[in-house]
From TrEMBL:
Pfam families: DUF2127. The lineage of its organism: Bacteria, Pseudomonadati, Pseudomonadota, Gammaproteobacteria, Lysobacterales. Keywords: Membrane, Transmembrane, Transmembrane helix. It comes from the Bacteria. The chain crosses the membrane at residues 79-99, 106-125, 131-149. This is DUF2127 domain-containing protein.
Length: 157
């Protein structure tokens, strides 16, 4: 590791963008952990009841369609599986947040690749559902990719 890289890693004030992204990732991770806990605490019965209420409220066919499929798919096993996936997602975001806050190179790579994976979906959403929200999401994701890619490139110099 060069002296410039050591100084770069040791100086968090050189990374205000990383701290902002780290804070957002920490919030996403905390929300995901809360959702995973909620899934485990609630279990399948309330979820099935809420989906049934949605089907009734919107006068949907209780035997066909995506909500009907979801209502039939919910079981204790599927709730545990969903909670485990959401837990893993949350932990990944918390680990990424810690790494970005500490200005770790691996966290910049992880965040840049993760945000870049969303870009095609953001572009699709912008064309499929044009509006200020889709545009804002795309712009924010582009900024995140740019900040993290810039960080990666600075480390290589």
């Amino acid at each position: 590791m060069t002296e410039a890289q050591t100084h770069y890693d040791a100086n968090p004030k050189a990374h205000p963008g990383l701290h902002v992204i780290a804070a957002v990732e920490a919030v996403k991770g905390a929300l995901a952990l809360s959702a995973a806990s909620g899934l485990e605490l609630l279990g399948p019965a309330p979820l099935q009841r809420w989906i049934g209420e949605l089907i009734k409220r919107f006068h949907l066919d209780p035997e066909h369609g995506s909500l009907a499929w979801l209502a039939h798919t919910i079981s204790p096993h599927s709730v545990h599986l969903a909670a485990a996936v959401v837990l893993a997602y949350g932990l990944l975001h918390l680990i990424e947040a810690w790494g970005l806050w500490k200005a770790k190179a691996w966290a910049s790579w992880l965040g840049c690749l993760g945000a870049a994976l969303y870009l095609p979906f953001d572009v699709y959403a912008m064309f499929r559902h044009p509006g200020w929200l889709a545009t804002a999401v795309l712009i924010i994701n582009l900024i995140v990719v740019w900040v993290l890619a810039r960080d990666i490139l600075k480390r290589r110099q």
